[in-house]
Amino acid sequence: MTLTMSMERNRNETSVSTFVLLGLSDEKEVQRVLFPVFLGIYLMTLIWNLGLIIVIRMNSHLHTPMYFFLSFLSFLDICYSSSNSPRMLSDFLKDEKNISFIACATQYFIGCWMGQAECCILATMAYDRFVGIGRPLQYSSIMAPGLCHKLIAGAYGSGFLGSLVQTVSCFRLYYCGPNIIPNFYCDVTQIISLSCSDSYISQMILSLESILVGFGSFLVIILSHAITVASILKLSSIKGSAKVFNTCASHLVVVTIFYSTSLFMYLHPNSSHSKKQNKVLSVFYVILIPMLNPLSIVSGTRRSKRPSRG
Q1: Do 25 and 31 form a contact (C-beta atoms < 8 A)?
Q2: What is the pLDDT of residue 248?
Q3: 145-to-67, 85, 140, 148, 153 alpha-carbon distances in Å
Q4: Where does the record place the G-protein coupled receptors family 1 profile domain (predicted)?
Q5: Angle at 78 between CA 72 and CA 84, to 5 degrees
Q6: What whole-number distance in Å separates Cα of residue 37 and Cα of residue 291?
């Protein structure tokens, strides 16, 4: 019994209580240049998404399912960006970039929640376009307000549960030695690699959720757009087909960047690509996508016209 208590005491004494984020660069001159750049990107993300939400709420002509989903997507992008950008910006001004164990878990939980919910909402918006363009006469009855609210609740709820499972499975592991994260935020793949205990179950949960939520929603988006384009090519003129193609293409560009970078990060073995590649990919889907997402979708929506609405 004495030996067991002694081992438990040693285990508690050597457990990690803080992590160290290396950030995008360890050179102060580079950090001084990066600070205003990423501050500008973060402010643009906040202004653009918040402005979009306000315009949609105030303009009665925009009270449609597509813009309803877009307002919640903008809210997710604000939360997603805010879970990482403020910490990254403050670290540019610090010599020591420490983050507590609890703060790291909280940051990851919020980011993962928003990320998974965003995948579901992007799939929902693709389905909305499929119904609006492919079944215009049935659009109002299918995309009723009740269904729209249920889809949003389902996206947020599934994201919350998925993030909770991932966070618990990751941060329940025992961390006893290395505590350096070679990134500007708490990346779960790099955190798990620091664990001193068996992380097989945590890695399996991460991979399964990435496949089910990430690849599953991406498949829904691709199929919805493919069916939509195929149906329009059969029925519409060349001019109408070009409009639909532009609508789908603007959405698919940012969606493809978001999914390809995130899936590569979470499904590809961490040892097979460099830390520099990791950071570059992280900047795309953590910093740039929240700013570009609503812009691309709005530009595509404005170019399109549903047959039923003229």
Answers
A1: yes
A2: 65
A3: 12, 34, 9, 5, 12
A4: 48-297
A5: 140
A6: 13
What is the C-alpha to C-alpha distance for residues 221 and 223, in angstroms, rounded to an integer? 6
Whether 219 and 124 have beta carbons less than 8 Å apart is answered as no
> What's the CA angle centered on 50, arms 142 and 21, to 5 degrees?
110
pLDDT of 305 above 50: no
The predicted-structure confidence for 15-35, as pLDDT tens digits, reads as follows 788 999 988 888 888 888 999
Q: 68: burial class by Cβ within 10 Å (0-12, 13-18, 19+)?
A: buried
Q: Please give the mean pLDDT across all residues of the chain.
A: 81
Quote the CA–CA distance of 231 and 220 in Å, as a whole number: 16
Mean pLDDT of 251-268: 68
Tell me which range, 6-15, 32-41, 126-135, is most confidently predicted by mean pLDDT.
32-41
- Residue 86 tokens read as 């403020």
Ranges of each domain in the chain:
25-303
Token match 């097989």: residue? 200
Query: How far apart are the C-alpha atoms of 153 and 89, rounded to whole Å?
Result: 32
Helix or strand (DSSP H, E) at 98: strand 98-100
As a whole number, mean pLDDT of residues 97-117 equals 94
Among residues 106, 126, 109, the alpha carbon closest in space to that of 218 is found at 126
Please, is 287 exposed, middle or buried when counting C-beta atoms within 10 Å of its C-beta (0-12, 13-18, 19+)?
buried
Fold of 25-303: Rhopdopsin 7-helix transmembrane proteins (1.20.1070)
pLDDT mean over 73-101: 92
Q: Which two tokens stand for residue 135?
A: 């079944």
